[in-house]
Amino acid sequence: MKIQPSLYNAYHICKREAWLMYHQITGDQMNEFMYIGRLLSEDSFQRKKHEIMLADLPAKVDMIETRNGELMIAEIKKSSKRYENGKLQLKYYLYLLHQKGYKIKGEIKIPKEKKREIIELNDEDIAFIEKSLIEIERLVREEVPPAPKRIRDCPKCAHYEFCFS
Ligand code: SF4
Fold first, then answer.
1. Which residues line ligand 1 (CB under 6 A)?
2. I need a surface site. Which of 32, 81, 102, 136 has the fewest CB within 10 A?
3. The pTM is what?
């Protein structure tokens, strides 16, 4: 099973959201916060992301650049709030490329905080990602989604009404 980056990211934010996404239960389309990837990129409305294919899967990245002759994928975040999610997302991109034989570095930038970090995929990351992929496959094969559990993102989620009314 090929796990799309959007599903991988959703899984690490809310497992119920990941299940609903996989089963194409789209939630309240009128929700004012409804954006593709609304849970995944808090500032996606400010920038147009580049849509690319990574290992035959669609991905949205902020920047692809060449530095010192090396290709690099960069994610730009508005604040540290979603830093860890951004890192997970970027590592999954690097993993997909690694599976295709490319060794590419990533970078996360938070311009407002003058923060940047070079991200490289290591064996521990690969083990974590592969464990997550097995868990995601198991999750989406469940007949019903996990019960709703309130998290910080719930009020912005298109499934809010579906989950809590
Ligand atoms: S409203 Fe909350 S619990 Fe429900 S899918 Fe969205 S993030 Fe998950």
1. 14, 16-17, 20, 148-149, 151, 153-154, 157, 159-160, 163
2. 32
3. 0.82
